[in-house]
Design a protein that fits this description.
Largest sheet: 5 strands, mixed
Shape: elongated
Strand order of the largest sheet: 3-2-1-4-7
Number of helices: 16
Structural class: alpha+beta
CATH architecture of the largest domain: 2-Layer Sandwich
CATH class of the largest domain: Alpha Beta
Radius of gyration: 39 Å
C-alpha cells in the first residue's frame, strides 16, 4: 500500500498532465496503483475494510469478559462452546481495538524542579539474602528531584518510627532538606485525604516542621508524579541486590550506603552530568539541619521480670538485678535499646535483629557468683529502706514475720510508700497499724491517705 507521501506526489504529477506510465516510473509504483490513487483523488491512505470475526458476538464478549474476570482465554473457550468461529488472535485484536479490558496509553508528564524544591520518598518490599536466609525487607529511598541524588536503607518493617529514622539518616546524608517531600498516599504519613487534600498525622507534621519542610502527596494512581524515586527501585533490584549476600542488617545498610555513593558519582544521560556535581549547587539551597538533631526512638514502659530482663519485640535485655520489679523506661532506637530509671540510664544494649526470643545479657547485671545474700543478714531492700527511714525498723520486722514467703516484694512496696508520701503521716499510720497487728500494705496506704487528707488539707470524712 502506498504511503501518504507517494499518494500526494502522484496527484501532483497528475495535475502536471503526466501520463500514468510516466508517473508510475517516477514514483516506482505500479500503474494500477497510480490509477487507483488518481481515481480516489485523495492523498489520505484508505483504511482496509475488513469484517471483524468477533463483531456479531460483541454482547456475549462483554458479558463473558465480566464473568471470567478479564481472562480472555476463558472467554474464547466459552465463545467456542457457544458455536462462535472466532480465533483467539481475532478475539484479542477485537478487544484491543474496541478498548475492552484495555485503555489507550496515557503520555507521561514532564516535570522541571528547581534546586532545593522537592525530594521524593517511597518504599518497596525486596527479598534480601541475610546470613544465608532470604528475608522480606522494606527498602526506603529518598531522591532529590533536581540533582537526582539518592539515599536508601533497609528495615524489617516500615511504620512511623522507621520512617522518621530513615528520613533523619537521609537528611544527615544530604546535609539538609528540600522545601517539600513528595510521597504516595501511605498511612504512615497520611491522616486523611489524598493528593492535594492530604492531611498528615500530627506526629509526622511535627517531625516535618522540625526539619523545615512539608509533606505533599500525589493523586491516587498518579505514580508518575514521583517517577524519580519509583524508577530507582527497579535499578536497586537489578543492580544492587543482584548477586549480593549480607552478613546482617548493619552490613546490608553499610553496603547500601556505599552503593549510593557510587551511583551518585556516575554520569546520567538525561542530566548530561553527575548527580554529585549538580548537588554542589543544590546543597546551597537546602534547608539547614537544626543545631541539635535528637536520636529517633520509640518509648516503652516495662516492669523488670523476676529474671532481671525487660522484653522488647519478643527479645529480652538484661538490667541490673537490683531493679527487679521496678517499672522502667525503655527507648528503642535504630541500633540500641537503652533502659532508664527516671532520668538515669541503667542499661544499654545493641539491638538484636536475629529472630525472636533472644536474650541479651551483660555480665555486670547479674549478681556475683558465690557472693549472694547471706541468709542470716538483712535483705538489700531492707538496708536501703531503713537507710531512708529508720523509724520503720519495728514495722519492717513485723512485716517480715507475717510475709516470710514474699519478703522482697512487700519491702519494695513499702519502699514505694516511703518515696510517695510525707514522713509524719507514714510513721503515724505504721504505729497505729502495729498497735492492731495489721500489716496489710493496701490498708496501710489507705490510713496514710486519711492522715494526709486531715493534716494537709483539713478535709472531714463525709457520712451518709
Amino acid at each position: 500500500m502506498l504511503d501518504q507521501e507517494k499518494r500526494t506526489a502522484i496527484l501532483v504529477l497528475h495535475g502536471q498532465d503526466l501520463s500514468v506510465r510516466a508517473i508510475a516510473r517516477a514514483c516506482r509504483a505500479s500503474r494500477s496503483s497510480v490509477r487507483a490513487v488518481i481515481k480516489s483523488a485523495s492523498a489520505e491512505v484508505p483504511r482496509p475494510e475488513r469484517k471483524e470475526q468477533a463483531e456479531p458476538w460483541r454482547d456475549e464478549i462483554l458479558s463473558l469478559y465480566k464473568d471470567c474476570k478479564g481472562n480472555l482465554a476463558r472467554v474464547h473457550e466459552k465463545l467456542v462452546d457457544q458455536g462462535a468461529h472466532v480465533t483467539y488472535q481475532a478475539l484479542t485484536g477485537f478487544c484491543r481495538r474496541n478498548e475492552i479490558g484495555s485503555k489507550a496509553a496515557v503520555p507521561a508528564g514532564h516535570y522541571t524542579f528547581a534546586a532545593g524544591q522537592e525530594m521524593q520518598n517511597d518504599t518497596s518490599p525486596h527479598r534480601v539474602k541475610i546470613a544465608g536466609k532470604v528475608r522480606l525487607a522494606q527498602c526506603a529511598c529518598l531522591v532529590l528531584a533536581h540533582s537526582r541524588m539518592c539515599f536508601m536503607a533497609y528495615y524489617p518493617t516500615f511504620d512511623r518510627f522507621w520512617c522518621k529514622t530513615f528520613l533523619t539518616e537521609a537528611f544527615r546524608y544530604f546535609g539538609g532538606t528540600c522545601k517539600e517531600c513528595m510521597i504516595d498516599n501511605t498511612h504512615v504519613v497520611v491522616a486523611h485525604g489524598s493528593g492535594q487534600t492530604m492531611v498528615p498525622v500530627p506526629e509526622m507534621e511535627a517531625f516535618a516542621t522540625r526539619f523545615g519542610f512539608r509533606f505533599r502527596a500525589h493523586a491516587i494512581g498518579h505514580a508518575n508524579r514521583s517517577a524519580h524515586v519509583e524508577r530507582k527501585f527497579r535499578h536497586i533490584e537489578q543492580n544492587f541486590l543482584a548477586g549480593r549476600e549480607f552478613q546482617d542488617w548493619d552490613d546490608l545498610n553499610r553496603q547500601a550506603r556505599e552503593w549510593c555513593d557510587q551511583v551518585n558519582a556516575k554520569a546520567k544521560r538525561d542530566l548530561h552530568a553527575r548527580p554529585i556535581d549538580l548537588f554542589v549547587q543544590e546543597k546551597i539551597t537546602l534547608n539547614p539541619l537544626p543545631a541539635y538533631v535528637p536520636e529517633v526512638y520509640r518509648l516503652h514502659h516495662r516492669v523488670v521480670d523476676v529474671e532481671g530482663y525487660v522484653r522488647i519485640q519478643r527479645n529480652a535485655y538484661s538490667v541490673p538485678y537490683k531493679l527487679i520489679g521496678r517499672q522502667l523506661e525503655v527507648r528503642e532506637s535504630h541500633h540500641r535499646i537503652d533502659v532508664y530509671d527516671g532520668p538515669r540510664q541503667v542499661a544499654s544494649h545493641a539491638r538484636s535483629w536475629d529472630g525472636v526470643d533472644q536474650r541479651v545479657t551483660v555480665k555486670e547485671h547479674r549478681p556475683p557468683r558465690g557472693e549472694g545474700r547471706s541468709k542470716a543478714g538483712p535483705f538489700p531492700e531492707e538496708k536501703e529502706l531503713l537507710r531512708e527511714e529508720p523509724g520503720l525498723a519495728d514495722f519492717v520486722a513485723g512485716l517480715k514475720a507475717h510475709f516470710p514467703w514474699k519478703v522482697t516484694r512487700v519491702l519494695k512496696r513499702l519502699h514505694g510508700l516511703v518515696r510517695d508520701y510525707p514522713r509524719a503521716p507514714l510513721l503515724g499510720a505504721a504505729i497505729e497499724a502495729m498497735a492492731y497487728g495489721m500489716f496489710d500494705l493496701e490498708r496501710l496506704e489507705g490510713m496514710i491517705l486519711r492522715r494526709v487528707r486531715h493534716d494537709h488539707f483539713g478535709l472531714e470524712d463525709s457520712h451518709e
